[in-house]
Amino acid sequence: MMHITFIGGGNMATAIIAGLTKARGCQISVVEPNADKRAQLAQQFGVTTQEQLPVYFGSGQIVVLAVKPQQLREVCGGLASRLDGALVLSIAAGVGVSALSRWLDGHERIVRIMPNTPAMIGKGVAGLYAPRGVDEQDRDAAQRIMAAAGSTVWLDEESGIDDITAISGSGPAYVFYFIEGLIDAARQMGFDDATARELALGTFEGAVALARHSGEDIATLRANVTSKGGTTEQAIASFDASELKSAILRGARACRARSVELGVQLSQD
């Protein structure tokens, strides 16, 4: 039985809690200052909620830091004296292990996690990083918690958190951006809003399902639809002329650079 306390009951915490309650085998509590949110979590998932931090977190407990990065230093300040060896998982963006450890008075049992919003429906992708001092049992506990909300990838270096932020962490927004464009194109071609939305979403869902089912290289799947001299070829040629792939790469790199910058800003004393 895992004893897990979430500090913060926002969307990402709620998504992970939803998965954990389905998987069972966990005793979950949530520290959340908002009374309405506490009531919602208690009613929806049957978890224990409270407004203030508990007095003590023992070595057999797991603490999940699920607050906004800007709130993290203050939360850690209140948490430090209450930790007695508990495993700490942080899903807050930007703040590195060294800063977390410093704010927690030298606590070293820490795992950093970068989840994404599809975790809300059990389809998330989470990148995890643990420093060398974190043992296999703690890594397994972190893995089990995040696997309840989707798939997981372990990162060898902490800088990988910035890399995965640029791909899967922020990636859903890139996909939504393309869907927006496809919906707009459908509207301009005369489809009503509901039909345009269904055409775009259905196309994305079907294409992803086909890619997973077939196991073929993505470029091959794309080529299978792109007949020589056909209609799709003209669309792909237009995308290439606009350097769409290069734009995606530039966007991902800009995202990573901002992740690094935020990490520096948030971690400064």
CATH superfamily of the largest domain: NAD(P)-binding Rossmann-like Domain
Number of strands: 8
* Overall number of structural domains: 2
Order of helices and strands: EHEHEEHEHEEHEHHHHHH
* Poorly predicted runs: none
Largest sheet: 8 strands, mixed
Please indicate the percent range of residues in DSSP E strands (runs of 2 or more). Answer: 5-15%
**What is the helix fraction of residues, given as a range?**
40-55%
Pathway: Amino-acid biosynthesis; L-proline biosynthesis; L-proline from L-glutamate 5-semialdehyde: step 1/1
Subcellular location: Cytoplasm
GO molecular function, one term: pyrroline-5-carboxylate reductase activity
Keywords: Amino-acid biosynthesis, Cytoplasm, NADP, Oxidoreductase, Proline biosynthesis
Quick tags:
proline biosynthesis; 269 residues; 15% strand; Rossmann fold; P5CR_dimer; alpha/beta; oxidoreductase; eight-stranded mixed sheet
Explained architecture:
The chain has 269 residues and is α/β, with parallel strands linked by helices. The chain has 2 domains: 2-155, Rossmann fold, CATH 3.40.50; 171-259, ProC C-terminal domain-like fold. It has 11 helices and 8 strands. Strands 3-2-1-4-5-6-7-8 form an 8-stranded mixed sheet, sandwiched between helices. Helix 6 (160-169) packs across helix 11 (244-267). It catalyses: L-proline + NADP(+) = (S)-1-pyrroline-5-carboxylate + NADPH + 2 H(+); L-proline + NAD(+) = (S)-1-pyrroline-5-carboxylate + NADH + 2 H(+).
